[in-house]
């Protein structure tokens, strides 16, 4: 299912989860997508703070519902957040990637049960976001140069 997460004083974005997902699991997905450490996240649904150990179904979170994400101060003052993610990687969680996940979902539905589709999709998203966070500026530059050469008709020599 798709739910929306609204950042305090920020945009909202769509996240694919299953109703059996724990709040902790959702926070881990959010940490990868928007680079806010799990321990600094506080999720609220219908005015109630969500406990990490409970499943989303416990709170009756359903397709299309909106959760609110607040950040709380880290206990480790002055410690940089893990995985210092470039701004572009954090922005990948916005609606532009929704089309990608929707197309992948359609493809997966041909091969898996509906429950398994969501599980596989969540794992794809985790892997994708993890890999995006590990990109260096050099990686991005090499990729951009290669793509620019290809679009300008220059063959790339390996």
From TrEMBL:
A Pfam family the protein falls into: ubiquitin
PANTHER family associated with the record: UBIQUITIN-LIKE PROTEIN 4A
Name the UniProt record assigns to this protein: Ubiquitin-like domain-containing protein
Main location: cytoplasm
Keyword Cytoplasm: yes
Sorted UniProt keywords: Cytoplasm
GO-annotated cellular components: BAT3 complex
